[in-house]
Amino acid sequence: MRHSFMEAAVERLADRGIASFRYQFPYMEKGSRRPDYRPILLKTVRSAVDAARGVSHGLPLFAGGKSMGGRMTSMALSGGPPDAVKGVVFFGFPLHPAGKPGVERADHLSDLSTSMLFLQGTRDKLAPLDLLLPVCEGLGQRATLHIVEGADHGFHVLKRSGRTDDEVLEELADTTRAWTNTVIKSEN
User: Fold this and answer.
1) How far apart are CA 86 and CA 77, in angstroms?
2) Are 99 and 69 in contact (CB under 8 A)?
């Protein structure tokens, strides 16, 4: 939750009227590089969603995260997310481990009943678009894919792209705000 990307993203979202409830996985809190076992990761996500719901005072609640955090969020919510969660935002969905192309990490998404926003870079080596596009298409109207030209998994862009990482963060925040507005309006 203290990663520079997360801090910058949260700041940009706040500028657009989106409050964030950040939390830390136990392994990160301990300073470990090895992620916790899946049951601990999922329990952490569910606890964070419950805590956010408790302080949101009925405001629309969206869950999500960066890379593994987003994937664990969708796994924790698949098969029956709390009614309060309107959608899931993935800041770089990790479709497969580095160097091992595949789509198995997306299998659980078909069990997720909420709307999903995938924010993905064209240079993301953990989610090549030729693999991710069919996954999103298979999810139908629940999935929205926003492609960030020239961005990698960390949403960094090359200088020769003519864009800066800050401009990419602005794009991510604008896209998230527009998408959340659309989801909220579709429920009314």
Assistant:
1) 11
2) no
First to last CA, the chain: 32
* pLDDT tens, position by position, 89-110: 999 999 999 999 999 999 999 9
Give the pLDDT of residue 4: 86
Distance CA 136, CA 118 (A): 8
pTM of the model: 0.95
DSSP category for residue 188: -
Rounded-to-integer distance, Cα 42 and Cα 125, Å: 25
Residue for token digits 């409050």?
Answer: 19
Q: Are 66 and 22 a contacting pair, CB within 8 Å? A: no
Task: Give the CA count within 13 Å in the CB-facing half-sphere of 80.
Answer: 0
What domains can you pick out in the chain, each with its CATH number? 4-187 (3.40.50.1820)
